[in-house]
């Protein structure tokens, strides 16, 4: 039996390998990354970078989709983070400063796009590299190496690929609403066109709530919102006003829930799940039959508001809280 077990495990590291997708390999061979002449838009970007005081180090195609990229050294004072991404983590920046300073090398290029708007002070935005940029600035660097993407729209798309630091719900929602506001000024298109970047419609509404109330407990409402929100079909310029109305409705419900939380605390009922427990009690979709017609945001929040108004904290027993689960409430 032991020999059989060893045979099954021989040559294995204990990590299950993921199967490769069916079909032939895709992408470019290493020798093909610079085998063709770049298109005019890339040549124009090459010229613009050098006019900005930068230096193009290489022009090549990325190996998966074959899109053209420019590897360049940029004057660090011309580079800024996109205005809609998450806030810097001081801990992460300090760690990068220490590592870069210790090894004496900057080895991980940032991603950047060149701006075409003349009213911007910065000439380049980085949607992926804000922490590295900040660390290099603190260390006194004069330039920073970047992979410059010719398409400005990449500034929004790349955020979906950013895994430098895991998001929590607040960070992601704030990132989404900042991006939304920027896009609403640039393009008159519907939310769904940026479904990949926004990930889910509830993050837009939650982002507005976090802006208005930084210590808002969005995690308590997120499970409900994911089931009742959809991307708006109207252009984002008008959609922003609708989203603000939705955020006000959610914050008004939260005010009522907070009152009940305080009432429970007054009775001596202490639990890290108080708000989540109360939201679950007024959640109209939690036990809704699968074959029932889905509720809209307005329908769901209206039912929750009415249920919250009728809720009696005096009827809650300690055992009710003990049976509640889920993630602890965020700090109020």
From TrEMBL:
Residues 1-30, 308-332 are annotated as: Disordered. Residues 308-320 have a biased composition (Basic and acidic residues). It comes from the Bacteria. Residues 1-21 have a biased composition (Basic residues). This is Uncharacterized protein. It comes from Nitrospira japonica.
